[in-house]
Amino acid sequence: MFTAVKGTLDGYGYEQVTLAGAGHEARILPQAGFNLYHWTFEGEEILMEPVDLSVFGTKYGIPILFPTPNRIRNAVYTWQGREYTMTKRGEKVLLHGLVKDEPFTVTRLEAGEDSAVCEAEIAISRENALYEGYPFACTLTVRYTLTAAGLRMDAFVRNEDEREMPFGFAVHPYFSKRGDAGRVSLTVPCRRYYEADEGRIPTGRLLPAEGETDIHSRYRTVESLYLDHVFRGMTADMESKIRYEDIVVHIRASDCFRNAVVYTPHDRPGFCIEPQTCATNFINMHAQGLVDESGLMVLPAGRTFACWVDMTVEKRTEA
Question: Residue 57 has what pLDDT?
């Protein structure tokens, strides 16, 4: 039997939702960008443990990146010939969009024999601060479902405006190194990555993933990698894998997630494999004529976009 419980995070006073069952436990902070910040299987960590839960944003858990994942050069973007500045409450937003540190409203919480579900939503509208830098009225709904296999995230974007809207969507999970990055390995089946300048903005060229960027031909230990790269070439029938000593985590996503960011910082207790629909600076790439490379999504007025990300757990049997 699975459970879905709403409570309060001790020491912080934040609303917290806990989903549990079949050896899994997941905890979500709705007011911190609906961040699923804790996930264990049979008591062992899968996600990196947060350093400070009072700092909302993209430093722990599974931040949700919308409507502009990754970087926008100088927080300025061009769409259909018009220039916009991505700001929120008067401050420029250079990185990872607008909702990562905003409160979501829980709209569904239920559990049964086979699963536990938590769903929440956030609106960008003329009545709130998010519209300031992204003047396209829309609603983002995110649903987490916990099953015996692991976690599934479903996301829906509803265009509430009278015109089409440009956007990107991504999730930014921090996986745990479990104290020893030499004992954790990963593989991502992309054979190309985006060349980037010193500001990590794509030049428009796609390069072959060879040498230090070859993570598709075999497992590589996290300790051996120095990556902060946007890889390209994912489809729904392909999967990235993280191999711990006891389990393998499989990551799959719907076809719209053509990119995967792999980030392996050596000064943090975690690393990232991030399914993304788009490239860094994608709206500006599109405006420059790099249409396919940008990965920009365009949603007509009144329509809904849907996507999913699966993160499943398999016990290891081989040595």
Answer: 87
Q: Which residue type does 97 have?
A: G
Please answer whether residues 147 and 22 qualify as being in contact, where contact means their C-beta atoms are separated by less than 8 angstroms.
Answer: yes
C-beta atoms surrounding 305 within 10 Å: 20
The model's pLDDT over 204-237, given as tens digits with 9 standing for 90+, comes to 999 999 999 999 999 999 999 999 999 999 999 9
| Whole-prediction pTM | 0.97
CA trace torsion 126, 132, 134, 137 (10° rounding): 0
DSSP 8-state secondary structure symbol assigned to residue 314: E
Residue 319 has what pLDDT? 58
Which residues 6+ apart lie within 8 Å of 196 measured at CB?
202, 203, 229, 230, 280
> Which contacts (CB < 8 Å, 24+ apart) does range 190-194 have?
190/215, 190/216, 190/231, 190/232, 190/233, 190/234, 190/260, 191/216, 191/233, 192/231, 192/232, 192/233, 193/229, 193/230, 193/231, 193/232, 194/229, 194/230, 194/231, 194/232, 194/279, 194/280, 194/293
Q: Which residues contact 117 (CB under 8 A, 6 or more apart)?
A: 4, 19, 108, 109, 110, 111, 143, 144, 145, 146
- C-alpha 14/C-alpha 32 separation (Å) is 9
Q: Are 107 and 208 in contact (CB under 8 A)?
A: no
Burial 236-266 (b: 16+ CB within 10 A, else e): eebbbbbbbeebbbbbbbbebbbbbbbbbee
The phi and psi torsions of 130 (rounded to 5 degrees) equal -70, -25
Q: How many CB atoms lie within 10 A of CB 132?
A: 19
**DSSP designation for 281:** T
Q: Which two tokens stand for residue 156?
A: 């829906």
Q: How far apart are CA 19 and CA 233, in angstroms?
A: 33
Query: Which residue in the block uniquely carries the two structure tokens 């609106």?
Result: 123
SS3 call for 286:
helix
Contact 155/307 with Cβ under 8 angstroms?
yes
Q: Which helix (H) or strand (E) holds 291?
A: helix 291-294
